[in-house]
Automatic annotation (TrEMBL):
One of its GO terms (cellular component) is receptor complex. Keywords: ATP-binding, Kinase, Membrane, Nucleotide-binding, Transferase, Transmembrane, Transmembrane helix, Tyrosine-protein kinase. The keyword Membrane applies. This is Protein kinase domain-containing protein.
Amino acid sequence: MSLQCNFSTSNRCNANGINNGVIIIPVILGFSSVVLIIIVIWKTCKMKKEKERAPVILLQDKPNPAKRLENEYESMTNATEQILAARDPSFKRWEIPPENLTGNLEYMQSGTYGPIYKANILSTDGSGEVKAVFKSLHDNANAKEILEYLDFVKFHMKVCNHDSIVKLLGCRTEKLPLYIFLEYVSGGCLLHSLWQLRETAAESGEVVLNLTEKSMYSIAKQVACGLDYLTTKHKVIHGDIAARNILIHEDLTVKLAGLSLAFDVYKTGTLSSHRAAQVPIKWLAPERVIKRPITEKSDTWSFGIFLYEVVTLGAPPYPEFQPLEIFPKLQRNYRMPKPSNSSNALYDLMKQCWQWKPYERPNWSDLTNKLEALMSNADEIKLLQVADELDLNQYKQAAGVF
Ligand SMILES: *[C@@H]1O[C@H](CO)[C@@H](O)[C@H](O)[C@H]1NC(C)=O
Ligand SMILES: *[C@@H]1O[C@H](CO)[C@@H](O)[C@H](O)[C@H]1NC(C)=O
Ligand SMILES: *[C@@H]1O[C@H](CO)[C@@H](O)[C@H](O)[C@H]1NC(C)=O
Ligand SMILES: *[C@@H]1O[C@H](CO)[C@@H](O)[C@H](O)[C@H]1NC(C)=O
Ligand SMILES: *[C@@H]1O[C@H](CO)[C@@H](O)[C@H](O)[C@H]1NC(C)=O
């Protein structure tokens, strides 16, 4: 004690306690600071060490990007080869090798899976070249798209097997690039052919197709037959019935095309909302506009619009209304008036297709029979004609098609 007192020259001994505190507290504080600093340094070192170790682990996890890409590409190629090797044996029968493709491809349009071309192929029976529509899967397709494309080919193998539906001629699924060949329909899109009838009527007198009342009913009947086949045989709906999706041969046989919505239904049992949203409103049954359950009777409604298109030689439906104005009008029981060139019987058929309640619309066998009956009494000499000219931009506006 005295020693301590002696250390501090100025302090009195009765202040010993205080003096002790003054010394001990800094010592403790100093000591704990040192400990703290040591702990901090130790921790930092440990973290640094961990940090130093960490990249090693990361590097093992993540190979360098170039290496990884190469591996991915290789495993993708492997995946593709495995997918194609494991495909259904039923594909083999349809295989058409690239050697059988003759001449140049002629670009037509872009499609869902890639570009669409007109092509010539050597036929199976060796009888020479036939024209075909060539639809290939685009080059950068991933494994998922390849699988979907194989489904798409299979859908054509099963479903495109009726006189009123574009036929599958063959495909290539053995190796990339994948493609299908579909029947080439000489007259092209029915809507354009109908328009040409107007133009020729108005201008040159040079007739491309001779469309009489009788042939009009025949066209409608063929379409109804195709739809009957889709619903009864395959339980799918077409989803986009319109003159723009019907192809016509010069001999006036017609084929249903534009089957991508039908493919969705085939695969998933329902319409994909993305693709369904692209169908112009003026062709849609009310239950489709308000997203109620859809049946084949939704196609029946569109078929009524299609009848209107044929008899008016491709006029836009509801020309005086905007697409979004239609639904409330239909709800209040408004329907398109009878086109001037339509017979009463045909207009009756349209109105049956436009029944608000789906189950009150006729079924396909009904429609086929009725069209057959109309056909047997129809004029087969006088050509259908419509005086008005048609402007493409006005059409697009009025039809709500873009
Ligand atoms: C790809 O397949 C080859 C043999 O076919 C094999 O050697 C290679 O390891 C495979 N690559 C990957 C990434 O699976
Ligand atoms: C390919 O063309 C040849 C004629 O050069 C023909 O004999 C063969 O049947 C064709 N193959 C297919 C799958 O169409
Ligand atoms: C259409 O009919 C006219 C006669 O009215 C005929 O000269 C022409 O060849 C026919 N065209 C076709 C494609 O049948
Ligand atoms: C189609 O409707 C008629 C009545 O309009 C009915 O007699 C017939 O059985 C129906 N056919 C099918 C396949 O549902
Ligand atoms: C269609 O209507 C036009 C008038 O727009 C008329 O000249 C023509 O004869 C009609 N055609 C038929 C087949 O009814």
